[in-house]
Amino acid sequence: xxxxxxxxxxxxxxxxxxxxxGLSGCEKTNETGDGQRCRIEAKQGLDDDIVGTWxxxxxxxxxxxxxxxxxxxxxxxxxxxEGGALVISSNTSEPIGLExxxxxxxxxxxxxxESEEFTLRLGGLTQGCEISTDAMTxxxxxxxxxxLNLVRIR
Length: 154
Fold this sequence. Notes:
By secondary structure, this protein is an alpha+beta fold. An 8-stranded antiparallel barrel has the order 1-3-4-5-6-7-8-9. The chain has 1 helix and 9 strands; from the N terminus they run H-E-E-E-E-E-E-E-E-E. The chain has a domain of 101 residues: Lipocalin (Beta Barrel).
């Protein structure tokens, strides 16, 4: 009679160990499926129209001290207005890219260094620009600058 009780305890112990091993392999993250910490509802627009409100979701530096920063939970907003005015507002200190403030821009319908569809003159900077219906990439990496990924929110 002792044998079945011992086997029963052994089975419970083995099951407990198996569950602990299974749970230790699980990793809890706060990221969405696309690698962002917070989900952003993108709005649709024209794939050649920069006018609107865009949210910075990711910034990358690729040369000196390369890094990628997720801004999806922050409020770094680029508001491109008719007439070439850009207003950047931010709740973060030292974002990758331009600081909060007022700038002028000009979107040129010509490739930037034959890599991006558009050329964007932003303040005194010239950079590549790719626009889709709901996202935009500002790429100044060929000039040792950052790559910024934005989502259209209005």
